[in-house]
Amino acid sequence: MSGSSPSLAPLIVVLGPTASGKSALGIALARRFNGEVVVCDSTQVCRYFDIGTAKVPASEQHGIPHHLTDLVEPDEVFTAGEYRRCAITVLDDLKRRGRLPVLTAGTGLYLRALLEGLADAPERSEELRSRLRETAQHRGAEYLHRLLAKIDPDAAKKIAVRDAQKVIRAIEIRMLARQTVGEVHRTGREALQGFHVTKVGLSPNRKALYAHIEARTREMIAAGWLEEVRALVGKGISPDAKPFQFIGYRELADHIDGKISLEEAVSRIQQATRQFAKRQITWFRREPDVHWLEGFGTEPAVIANAAAVVGDFLGQFQRATDSSG
RNA sequence: GGACGGGUGGGUGAGUGGCUAAAACCAGCAGACUGUAAAUCUGCCGCUCCUUGCGGGCUACGAAGGUUCGAAUCCUUCCCCGUCCA
Question: Could you tell me the pTM of the whole model?
């Protein structure tokens, strides 16, 4: 192994909007390059919510291990920070075992948290939050923003009055860290150590992506999604649990409640998924150093291109470690 | 055939003489986002012109006429839609 620098291992990231074929491409690359898939998706982390979160069923994994799915119960809170910690553990393990990690990333924040790190900010505090939410109830949503403006004017300027979620997080940081958000953000952010990363981005034509989203939604229903949701409801999982906020689960739960027809649910799911895909595209556009490929990760030509990119990268990587070692 | 109610921008739907290119919401488009992120939030959203301004022009509230300085808003006729009576 290389003597001078701490050992580096390659890491492949496959990113793109939902339904762009990340999973398929990830598996294809893992098969070709002795890799394993590491999922970077905030919803697949949750147990029992399978079809709607597009988890790859074991039967379609081609024997490639998939990591970082099914980590928590539906009522458990999971955050970007925890994702980072879990992912680092998995990555280090793969490195030790000499297998190539192929990260399939749909959740931009988690990817960024892993690759660039998070500031040394306090974790969420549920009781502080419930207290803040309570005062917001009594004194209006703007009250919290005014409070933030008093204790951290710079942060308040950057956050919209109506963005209660971000206002609360800013207040939380300010109070718990006893520093402004700006100060906190300037400290402790540490990029991922020990890996050389290359990113492949899937960028199918927008119209085609939307069409595929629509088709896939119907396929998921055909695959028993509704029955899955019924079972989850039957299991007694609270309708307020976070995963019932995931696209599709809320609509299907509404249908089960008799609030909307199945057709209505399906078209709402398709719409929400399209909007989500757009947000992902917006996020990933700013991701640095991505090898963008036009098309879906299921297309042979795209897979070939991606394999070429990865092959080049691994070759360069090999040469670099050889010459340094 | 008669009696009501209604026809508003891609959709729902406010607006009953000027402050209205027309509320609000949705959809759409663009964007932000360092610990709930499949979340949360922001901007734009008739067409067009330029010396990009609380700028100019044009078109627009079923259709056509009319009243008025001025009409989505009032009047007339016509065409549709809904409900009820025959």
Answer: 0.93
